[in-house]
Amino acid sequence: MESKVSEGGLNVTLTIRLLMHGKEVGSIIGKKGETVKKMREESGARINISEGNCPERIVTITGPTDAIFKAFAMIAYKFEEDITNSMSNSTATSKPPVTLRLVVPASQCGSLIGKGGSKIKEIRESTGAQVQVAGDMLPNSTERAVTISGTPDAIIQCVKQICVVMLESPPKGATIPYRPKPASTPVIFAGGQAYTIQGQYAIPHPDQLTKLHQLAMQQTPFTPLGQTTPAFPGEKLPLHSSEEAQNLMGQSSGLDASPPASTHELTIPNDLIGCIIGRQGTKINEIRQMSGAQIKIANATEGSSERQITITGTPANISLAQYLINASSADPDPHGRNIFPA
How far apart (Å, rounded) are the C-alpha atoms in residues 134 and 112? Predict the structure, then answer.
């Protein structure tokens, strides 16, 4: 949550992030985007929804405080409407509460909880909403989920009180925002083409993975496992083994056939190193995760215009890491998005 106060100190602009499941996002977007369009127009807030084929999405609401509260009210009432509609087809008698999940920098959660839990208790009692602050940070971030549940009116009052606490206690240090991960599906490589398994069928995968596979295979000085592995029973495609796919995607297969780790060194100009590291190291961590290789970046040496990068792993891991490093330095993305969006 960021805040910006104008010189007069009257107009406060906030950014609040919400974590939603796919079904909730669908409800907010509406048919052909009509619901979210109406929410934007009537509240005056900017409402952005993260892209990607993820089970969870981030909804970012930005604007003056009154616009944010209007947007929250519209979201809360929309969710209540969904609950009412779902109950008309069910036998349940008690109406479940509306639930929203805020994403808050961990450094602000202490102020929200208060000494001995006093602040969170005060918010619960004065608004009638239930408030839970997650004990653990969300994966690969310095943010925590704050779950609010109750009637739409209780939720709106609760959000107002949380916003006041956030404005009084800004985040300390840098915040690494939470980014939901795409739903992972198994990937199999056959004849230079990547396939994902959906039900009983092998569906050709988007080009990015296929190109990665071809590149890694071209630079790998060992016979791909798939050339000696028979196709899976009942499968007509000349599939490579899943172990090979695991090797390529940087997971240890635990097989004796896996090639020994080796080391490769690269030199990168200083002015490109930032694109490879990314904001607060997000990009380099992403490259490490995708390639499965160990990547070390040497400290800058005085008078040198280049930095040394050492990559350790299997040949496939190394070539994948090299490819990702080249891709991020060739196409620097200031917004820190994934190189290969889902």
Answer: 12
